[in-house]
Amino acid sequence: MRYTINFDCKTHHIRKDGTIPMLLRVSINGEQTYLNLGKKIKISHYDTENKCVKAGINGFAGLTSFIDRQRIKVDNIITEHEKKEGMLNIHRLKELYEQDAGNVKSISFIGFVEETIKRERELGEIDNKTLNCYACHLKKLKKYKPKLSIHDITKSFLEEYKSYIITVLKHTDNTAYITMTFIRKYTKKLFRDGKISKYPFLDFSVGNPFEVNPSYLEPEELNKLHELYESKELEHIKVRRYNEQIATHGVGMKYQNVLRYYLASCYCGLRHSDISTLRTDDIQGNFIVKEMQKGRLRRKKTIRIPIRKKLLSLLNTENPNQLVFDVPVYDNKRTNEYLKAIAEAAGINKPLSFHSARHTFAINSLILGIKIEVVSDILGHSKLTTTQRYARVVDTLREQEMNKWDKLAIEETNEKESHITCPTCENTVLKFERNVIGLNKLPLVCPFCSASFLYNIKENISEFKEPKAA
Predict the structure, then answer these.
(1) Which of the residues 131, 277, 284, 469 has the least number of beta carbons within 10 Å of its own beta carbon?
(2) In a domain, 340, yes or no
(3) In the prediction, which pLDDT does 418 show?
């Protein structure tokens, strides 16, 4: 690494009292920056040709000694950083020097992200819907801590904010994961630009999307929602506006409309963006044939989804406006607000979001026995490993169901009393505690039908007893 450290003063920055700021001009591999030493000298005391303090002035020894100490401090920062973390750029050097001097300039993280999102919109490299999602995450962060500095993004802050997202805002683990990846994206940019010296996500893990349990509807819950839609009970829901003196207005039709396109997604796995742009010409015969845009970089993939009865009942295939769902498909935020009210009306105690429809389609398809390769293809996944996330959920469900066998065995083991029923009329003939009767076979006569039989206590089997000869 090539670097130089020289004393300098900017003579065009003369203050009203005739002083100029004392600086160090540092150059690293051709890049240059100025470090403010926090002191001033009179312009008449500065030698502009030799770039030094004039000899013989009052306090000359103290000033030159101070400048030398600052040179050594900067040199130490560069050499220590190079030993531990590799090459240092001028932005990070400036930050480290200001931290050491206690003069860190607070750069707003909120402002930095706002400017970056604005620039990303202008470049057009990232989809607008993705940037709108980023803006929503930023709005939540701004409400939590309006004056958030780039130096406030620490491991403890990330842990506290994630806890706030889950416990206070009541968001799902999946939403918390997405929120933390949003913060990580812009923090990484700050680190790469050298505006922060430590990358906090080295100590804090946002986790893996496959580790987050997806929210979904079980078959019974899905049937309950479809029955609610067909009953049209939602259409009669009204809410009181502001106060009791103002007339009520209906929101039921909006709920019914949201439930319609949510259920459609449950039956085909389309994302919100694809449902909102689904056109009648995307329906070709018994298939939905649609080009999907994937991810923030808008990669495209064409999918073919077979249409079955329940899905067909929700589609308006002859709409003159060409949109299958033209009464409108609300944005994600408003849709999710309505889904919470719909879930409450249906008696479903789950935090529904629109994306849970996609999870519902995947998990229920695997429960029904549809091959994972087929599910992966319909969902438009590029890799089968993405779909295997849902397979793991289904495996967990199977384990939970099979655990009932263990429960049954425990119940049988804990049963203290045995019941003997008549093999003819099936009435209870005798009750007794286990290990009380020492006989292997117990001769019995049913008081209800007079049938005689032997009961094998060890094998729990009733056998008809041959009547005695006259």
Answers:
(1) 469
(2) yes
(3) 72
